[in-house]
Amino acid sequence: MKNAFVGRLVGCFVTTRTTVAVGIIAGGFFATGAIAADVPTNSPTIGMEQVNSVAQLTDVKPTDWAFQALQSLVERYSCIVGYPDKTYRGDRALTRYEFAAGLNACLDKIQTLLAAATADFVTKEDLETVKRLQEEFATELSALRGRVDALEVRTATLEKQQFSVTTRLSGEAIFSRSNVFGGENATGFGGVPVDAGRGVGVQQNRVRLNFLTSFTGQDLLTTRLEAGNAIPILASGGTTPAPNPAFLLYSNEGRLAYDNTSVATANNSVNLSLLSYRAPIGNFATVTAFASGGSHFHYAETLSPYLDDEDGGNGALSRFGQFNPIYRIGGNGAGAGINFKLGNIFKIDAGYLANRANDPSREAGLFNGNYSALAQVSIQPGDRFGLGLTYVHAYNNAGAFRYGGAGTATGTFLGNLLPNSQGALPSPPNRPTVTDSFGAAGYFKLSDRIVLSGWGTYTRATFLSGGGGKGDIWSYAGALLFPDLIKRGSLAGIIAGVEPTLKGVELAGQQRTVVDRDEALHVEAFYRYRLNDNISITPGIIWLPALNQRADNDDVFITVVRTTYSF
What we know:
- This protein is mainly beta.
- It has helices spanning 67-77, 96-115, 124-136, 138-161, 261-265, 365-368, and strands at 49-50, 81-82, 167-182, 186-187, 193-194, 202-213, 220-228, 271-281, 285-294, 333-342, 346-354, 371-379, 385-396, 433-447, 450-463, 469-483, 491-507, 510-512, 521-530, 535-544, 556-566.
């Protein structure tokens, strides 16, 4: 019976307070077996509008086999609807629930006609057909009413409990278990002997909450709150023996992506780590304004797929392993960035950041103090290959240059031009510095499961005043990645490179020898296992064979087990 009858019912609609509307063709459940009940009941529906004549339906012709049935139901019973664009779409598959909804609407119309003493409009044949349909779909009609009632209750609950009509909440919580081995005979900041590998395990955390607000559907206001206690794993943890807080660290290398000395000092107190607003300019550009916490990697294309997670818990383990350190210069500031798209392949990024923009002092503010300006051109023909060339010009007050913002630097002490980091000249002098950095980054997907990526940067530092001088800083790395290894969403990676390393210093026109000038090698291996869409566990190891640019130092090994909860 269910596959044999042919009804004259062709379309109806049902409207509740939640405006659930569906259009139906009831040419029948054909004997082919391809019944409409096979269509998922949760498929999206489209709103409909009442029409008064078949002639209003642009895709129904007088020669169509169903034209007479349509005309009868429209003109005799006013029991038909069309889509907003005046089409009927009679070849669209429907579900039994949809058919039942349309039938119910037509039954209501017929009952209205009968109640109005206009029963002569309804033929005996029509009533017999309607009766059969009513009996056939009694179960579906009852279920549909229940679904609509439940939907109304859920909608009312969401309206009362929703956080905001414009803002959605996302977040991330990181639980980390880390340890350090080796480094018994090493030297730290200023050449002071240290015991970096204490073998003391630590349990640390970092939590982020992102309030993502859109006013037009295309713009985005990001307000990020952050708290944590992740002290750098190579920190001494004691009181500083000198005014320079770098003495708290044995080394600035191998730092984990989520450690932050500034945040950890507050020990899980909440702070604002990012406040930005992004909006499109036509179809060719996007501008991002930063009020606080902005870095160049927040808007510029880093060309480091899978590894770059903006210091989050789903990319590389270390800060250095995520992407080229050039994007960290002058970070944690205020300013703006803009992205231009030239077709589907070429892209230009440019930006300006000042990390003391809120300071009204004479040598601070948005334009008078520390700043960095980036320009980059990149090409990405498809999703398998990308290459970018980057230039960053920066100015920093005495001792303020960093590959990173406050508490988030990467590279050696010497590579970050910290005064007295070698204990004596030719350590970088404590003078204002202008830097010009040139970088390149790219990736190539050998297949969906094998990816090569890498980057390199050369920084030329010019020391101002005091006779002047120059310094050369180098950094580079390569990575071999295996996406979806074992399980979809998982990632295995091997990263090998050199963290920012000072290779030469010239003071007052004379070339000086840097005592510790070995490459600060960094080797990292990890495997991120995706338990589900929200939880991942990442064990890994970081090997530092030349701590503080000195190959004579004992090797240091950092082991990490990172658990990340994302929502």
